[in-house]
Design goal:
Layout: H1 4-29, E1 40-50, H2 51-56, E2 63-66, H3 68-80, E3 87-100, E4 106-118, E5 123-138, E6 141-151
Parallel strand pairs: 1-6
Antiparallel strand pairs: 1-2, 3-4, 4-5, 5-6
C-alpha cells in the first residue's frame, strides 16, 4: 500500500527532476552553454542518436560526450572553431515519466520538440523525439548521470551544433 509519505516523497522528487530539466533547457535556450557541463556528473554521459540507430542497437551517435572534459571541449569548439549560421532553440518538454526510482539513480523518460529560429527570423520544427535520463544526487543537488536523446528523424537539415 502506498502511504501519504511515499506519495509526498515521490512528488517532491518529481518536482526536483522537473526543475532540473527546466533549468537545463533554459541554459541551452538562453545560450549559457558554458554552464551546460554543470548539469552532469563528473563522469556523465550524453548522446544524441537517431531512433533508427537506437532501435537497431547501433552505437553511432550524432553527438557523444563521456566525462566533463568532452562536455567542455564541445562548448569550446562550438564557440571558437565551428562555423554555423546563428540561431536559437526553443525547447518544449512534456510527458515526464519516472521509470525507476528504486535505487540511488532515478530513470526517467520525456518527450521534446525543438523549434529553431534563424537570425533573420525563419522558424521551423528542428528536432523532436524522446529523452531517457538517469539522474542522481551529488552533494544534495540533482545531476544527469546519463542523458540519451533519441531523434525521431534520421535527417537533420543542418549541422547539429548546440546541445539538445
Amino acid at each position: 500500500m502506498t502511504t501519504t509519505t511515499d506519495l509526498d516523497r515521490d512528488l517532491a522528487m518529481r518536482l526536483r527532476i522537473d526543475a532540473l530539466v527546466a533549468d537545463y533547457i533554459h541554459c541551452i535556450d538562453e545560450d549559457r552553454l558554458e554552464e551546460w557541463p554543470d548539469y552532469f556528473t563528473a563522469d556523465g554521459r550524453y548522446k544524441v542518436i537517431t531512433r533508427e540507430n537506437y532501435d537497431l542497437g547501433l552505437p553511432v551517435a550524432l553527438i557523444y560526450c563521456d566525462g566533463r572534459g568532452m562536455f567542455e571541449d564541445r562548448i569550446s569548439a562550438l564557440r571558437t572553431a565551428n562555423i554555423y549560421e546563428p540561431h536559437v532553440y526553443c525547447h518544449m518538454v512534456s510527458a515526464l515519466k519516472i521509470l525507476d526510482s528504486s535505487g540511488p539513480d532515478i530513470k526517467t523518460q520525456s518527450n521534446f520538440t525543438v523549434t529553431r529560429t534563424m537570425s533573420e527570423g525563419d522558424m521551423m520544427t528542428f528536432l523532436c523525439g524522446k529523452v531517457f535520463d538517469t539522474v542522481t544526487e551529488v552533494d544534495g543537488e540533482l545531476k544527469f548521470k546519463e542523458r540519451t536523446v533519441i531523434l525521431d528523424s534520421r535527417r537533420i537539415d543542418t549541422l547539429l551544433v548546440i546541445p539538445v
